[in-house]
Amino acid sequence: xxxxxxxxxxxxxxxxxxxxxxxxxxxxxxxxxxxxxxxxxxxxxxxxxxxxxxxxxxxxxxxxxxxxxxxxxxxxxxxxxxxxxxxxxxxxxxxxxxxxxxxxxxxxxxxxxxxxxxxxxxxxxxxxxxxxxxxxxxxxxxxxxxxxxxxxxxxxxxxxxxxxxxxxxxxxxxxxxxxxxxxxxxxxxxxxxxxxxxxxxxxxxxxxxxxxxxxxxxxxxxxxxxxxxxxxxxxxxxxxxxxxxxxxxxxxxxxxxxxxxxxxxxxxxxxxxxxxxxxxxxxxxxxxxxxxxxxxxxxxxxxxx
Amino acid sequence: xxxxxxxxxxxxxxxxxxxxxxxxxxxxxxxxxxxxxxxxxxxxxxxxxxxxxxxxxxxxxxxxxxxxxxxxxxxxxxxxxxxxxxxxxxxxxxxxxxxxxxxxxxxxxxxxxxxxxxxxxxxxxxxxxxxxxxxxxxxxxxxxxxxxxxxxxxxxxxxxxxxxxxxxxxxxxxxxxxxxxxxxxxxxxxxxxxxxxxxxxxxxxxxxxxxxxxxxxxxxxxxxxxxxxxxxxxxxxxxxxxxxxxxxxxxxxxxxxxxxxxxxxxxxxxxxxxxxxxxxxxxxxxxxxxxxxxxxxxxxxxxxx
Lengths: 305, 305
Fold this sequence. Notes:
Helix content of chain A: 25-40%
Oligomer: homodimer
Low-confidence stretches of chain A: none
Mean pLDDT of chain A: 96
CATH class of chain A: Alpha Beta
Domain Carbohydrate kinase PfkB (chains A, B): 7-279
Distance between the termini of chain A: 43 Å
Pfam families (chains A, B): PfkB
Largest sheet of chain A: 9 strands, mixed
Radius of gyration of chain A: 18 Å
GO molecular function (chains A, B): kinase activity
CATH topology of chain A: UDP-N-acetylmuramoyl-L-alanine:D-glutamate ligase
Structural class of chain A: alpha/beta
Shape of chain A: globular
Keywords (chains A, B): Kinase, Transferase
Protein name (chains A, B): Sugar kinase
């Protein structure tokens, strides 16, 4: 039994109103893997990096017990590189550079030791790559969670819709839900998207929390109001990693557990943004996480008799 | 003992993507009064209308047991008129017309029968008028809630800050909190605003719910996701009316009760937007409200062991 996470492993260079970084380790699989590693022991990554990535950087993952047998190292190529600059509101950003590099020809290979995968997170990647992973698994996982973004709706909508038919949970933001469904109201958007394949839809709203739709129910999760958000990069991936990591931990998929999973995902995302890149996610401990979960409970709790 | 609500009583003409209205009854005091009337019996309004307002329109208020002795009718003037057009996102709108009319010289008079006021809602109005009401009350109310808007921060900031020193709860939206505090983070904005006078700050975030700051705590309330929002006009006022109406009902002001008050306010606001103008708020019953409160409980509830 294991949790498999597919996604980019990258270098990011980030500028925010609070400062800027040189190339630091990033990527959807990195953030999601680190987040999940605090909740579940058997986390296995699928991805690819160039010869420039270096052992030290891979150690960031292995230090958390994450299996990197599925990360292909292509020595004569460079690692995927993204750089961006966040605006003062931290919700919008300009992409300065996107160098696909090794990701351009990424053909995911699944080690035989990964075939015990029960929980699968398809991190934000080209839909065809997400599909290839599904095709190459010998057993259909117990739960498939898919993250994606507006870019793929623009350039690969049909592929994306094909993958959607095979996933259980889709996690996107509110703008993406509107784009995918053509509906402004989240209720109507969810109705349409749940007819496209997934049984559950998560709407990520950043500082406004998240919504979960499924089983005819709706759950609204708060976001923890933070005094300082240093770097939002990877928050969505950390959310997804925490979400599926919690479900792998409890080994039971239903609306009740998914609500808790969203709170865990939100907690991991709230840590992620407190420092640049993966810095904070490298140094967490279980007590900090438990304390933050208590903050979420206090934040949302009310009792009407 | 009574709940006094000060604010505009108006005619609105509204256009949304779902349709448009001729002049319908609106105004902050109207929406807040109607909302509060479902939770508390002794609701008393302070406001002014012109000779054109008509008895039928006043009956909308009296039908709910609302005391209108404090609504001054100026026969030879016209009622405040606002018209606006909402964009497709329903969060932004263009004001087409603002005719202050009778509101231009509004000098609030407090009937002696209103001097038993324990709960006071200063609805969105010129800060000098809000101040006059506070000055003319013989006893300081148990709770003063103030609603305001960015317009008054632009044109009467010093007056607004003077009133703020005398209120217990300020209710504004996130953009207004940023403007008033000069801080982007809601946590930092709240810290600054709570130093300006109020003991509690409510941040209204529309479809994203509301935040309550005070007593060193934070509460995040969800908004009910709705399939259709027909007309957002008056939602903030209905929220404020439901909020203070609940507190007047339970006769106890603390963070715990304020959380519930925010849920009641959110529930009343969620009804308000389902029809044009005050239509829905005129025809509610207690069972519907109780059912909606249950929806809010289900929406926000999670249990982490």
